[in-house]
């Protein structure tokens, strides 16, 4: 076990990293998130204080409202682009799948559980084994569970996403 001095030293190192965090916060305050605050979009946000920046937000193309709480980011080291999004609400699961379709997403990584410490963090946006498929009527997408491999610390699912408006489908991993 670390000694008291080692623990204090470790805590001091952590505290010295905070100015960098405050620099990021200050820079982010300078970037607008106005679209997320529009009255018609407030119900599409899980949290009041987590909004996509206007310059990097994903815009939906098919429906009457182009808003989803999601941002496109570039990881230069990996030479890839990623979409960061909130866990969908029950009313935004269809929008989530619309975004996945429009952005030609090949995989989804969920970093939380549906329920954590008794608090709902995300709606069940994929079909459970009993259901096999779910249709999101508001956006006309159907998601089918193709396979599920449950491990001790994670689960890998193969899903099929079908756009019922154009009778076309694609496969992805979650």
TrEMBL record:
Its EC number is 3.1.3.48. It is an enzyme of class 3 (hydrolase). Keywords: Hydrolase, Membrane, Phosphoprotein, Protein phosphatase. GO terms for biological process: negative regulation of ERK1 and ERK2 cascade; negative regulation of PERK-mediated unfolded protein response. Residues 32-174 form the Tyrosine-protein phosphatase domain. InterPro entries: NR_tyrosine_phosphatase, Prot-tyrosine_phosphatase-like, PTP_cat. Residues 1-25 are annotated as: Disordered. Its main location: membrane. GO terms for cellular component: early endosome; endoplasmic reticulum. One of its GO terms (molecular function) is non-membrane spanning protein tyrosine phosphatase activity. Transmembrane segments: none annotated. It comes from the Eukaryota. It is found in: Endomembrane system. The keyword Phosphoprotein applies. PANTHER family: TYROSINE-PROTEIN PHOSPHATASE NON-RECEPTOR TYPE 1 (PTHR46047:SF2), TYROSINE-PROTEIN PHOSPHATASE NON-RECEPTOR TYPE 61F (PTHR46047). This is protein-tyrosine-phosphatase.
